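Example 9 (inverse folding). The structure is encoded as follows.
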């Protein structure tokens, strides 16, 4: 059967809304894994610097001659700085793209690490505060990136896994921050020896941060040559004039499901921040002299959480059950917190390791779930903006819960402080149940795929059936196409093709 297309008639793919063009452009880049690994690495370094003081709170308290609350503020400074700077940085991310934000984040991270090297005397506590503030500035350029990198660089079947790996790096940094400082810096009385050991940690951190900054300059690209998914292709094809950053924020704040998620994410991650900051004080209170094991307990929380994050990302890519998975993980975070609260004081350190691991698997594993659920609920808004708002909520609740739990622990004991976190997680669980699974990004991918298939079917209507063994041939220019590249058939050959089986 032979059919000729009339002169001047649009091709079936063009009539289908240009789906063929979009399909031709969608392609995965091999560089995506290098970009993801590099981001995860400098995010790791920044997270390490966040918790490096808190994991040995008692040692730095004695070295600088300040209160435990002052050392707590070195961690909380990260949270405080993030809140006012979110919107300017999110605006930069939307207007200038991923590469500029990556350069700024990695550069500030290295700068803060070098500044801390000037604080190796007990009277130089203000210098270490300055270095930590600079590292906190770097964090503003880091925390909102995972879901954006995943969307810009990865396909629809791997985007949740990629986001989990991006968050994975940050959590691994916290794990290293719990493990390394207690090992490198022993709890000794001699101030000179203490300064020497602290200098080793600071020099190592500065060297790694500087090397990562250089790698970002060389390796990190703005985006791949072609969009990795149809949803991303639609976003990139949108005229810049159609996008308004202010209107985007207003739309997000009018999205009831996103607002519920923003609060529940803040409650859960705020509990994690408070627990991480105060963990050393909790463990030392019940197990004096166990600074190294306190760090190992923190390491256990993070490593199990990393496993949870990776599993949840793979699970989401396969099932797309965002609401159900988020709710189950939230419930289990509550259960884990309750179990940890009532086993901390049993005088069996191995029990604390087990319960802390259970808690970390779900509480830390929740982090990428929140980012990906937000990206689904708010598509096609910028992932950097939605992630940023989630992080602002987390920082606000993190500061409030860290201060509140610290004060309660000082007055009523560690159990009372942990019960506060249990009640907060219970509230978050109830609120999560009311979030509707409005998966807009998945819907966009499905609708685009259906339109593409309709376009392909229009080609089939010309009386040809394409398969690997029976290619489509263009009689006019003698080109052959299999079913795998049928969408290109009417683009690569002549404008008035005659298709024959």
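The amino acid assigned to each position is listed next.
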């Amino acid at each position: 059967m032979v059919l000729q297309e009339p002169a001047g008639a649009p091709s079936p793919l063009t009539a289908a809304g240009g789906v063929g063009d979009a399909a031709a452009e969608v392609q995965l880049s091999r560089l995506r894994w290098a970009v993801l690994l590099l981001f995860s690495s400098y995010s790791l370094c920044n997270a390490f610097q966040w918790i490096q003081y808190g994991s040995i709170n008692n040692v730095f308290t004695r070295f600088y001659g300040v209160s435990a609350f002052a050392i707590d503020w070195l961690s909380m400074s990260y949270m405080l700085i993030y809140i006012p700077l979110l919107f300017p940085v999110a605006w930069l991310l939307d207007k200038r793209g991923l590469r500029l934000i990556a350069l700024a984040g990695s550069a500030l991270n290295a700068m803060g690490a070098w500044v801390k090297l000037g604080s190796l005397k007990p009277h130089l506590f203000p210098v270490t505060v300055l270095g930590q503030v600079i590292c906190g500035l770097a964090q503003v350029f880091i925390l909102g990136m995972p879901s954006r990198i995943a969307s810009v660089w990865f396909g629809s079947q791997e985007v949740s896994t990629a986001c989990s790996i991006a968050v994975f790096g940050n959590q691994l940094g916290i794990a290293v921050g719990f493990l390394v400082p207690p090992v490198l810096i022993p709890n000794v009385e001699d101030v000179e020896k203490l300064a020497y050991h602290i200098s080793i940690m600071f020099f190592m951190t500065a060297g790694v941060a500087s090397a990562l900054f250089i790698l970002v300059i060389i390796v990190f690209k703005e985006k791949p040559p072609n969009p990795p998914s149809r949803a991303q292709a639609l976003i990139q094809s949108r005229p810049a004039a159609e996008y308004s950053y202010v209107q985007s924020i207003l739309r997000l704040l009018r999205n009831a499901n996103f607002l519920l998620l923003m609060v529940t994410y803040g409650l859960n991650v705020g509990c994690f921040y408070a627990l991480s900051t105060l963990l050393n004080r909790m463990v030392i209170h019940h197990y004096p002299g166990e600074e190294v094991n306190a760090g190992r307990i923190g390491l256990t929380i993070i490593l199990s959480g990393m496993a949870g994050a990776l599993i949840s990302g793979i699970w989401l890519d396969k099932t797309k059950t965002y609401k159900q998975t988020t709710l189950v993980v939230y419930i289990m975070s509550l259960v884990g917190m309750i179990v940890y609260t009532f086993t901390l004081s049993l005088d069996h350190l191995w029990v604390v390791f087990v319960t802390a691991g259970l808690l970390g698997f779900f509480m830390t594993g929740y982090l990428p779930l929140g980012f990906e659920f937000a990206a689904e609920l708010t598509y096609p808004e910028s992932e950097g903006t939605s992630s940023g708002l989630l992080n602002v909520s987390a920082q606000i609740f993190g500061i409030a819960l860290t201060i509140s739990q610290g004060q309660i622990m000082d007055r009523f004991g560690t159990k009372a402080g942990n019960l506060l976190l249990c009640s907060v997680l219970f509230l978050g669980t109830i609120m999560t149940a009311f979030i509707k699974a409005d998966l807009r990004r998945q819907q966009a991918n499905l609708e685009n795929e259906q339109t593409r298939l309709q376009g392909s079917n229009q080609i089939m209507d010309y009386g040809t059936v394409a398969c690997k063994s029976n290619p489509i041939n263009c009689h006019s220019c003698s080109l052959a196409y299999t079913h795998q590249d049928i969408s290109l058939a009417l683009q690569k050959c002549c404008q008035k093709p005659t298709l024959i089986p």
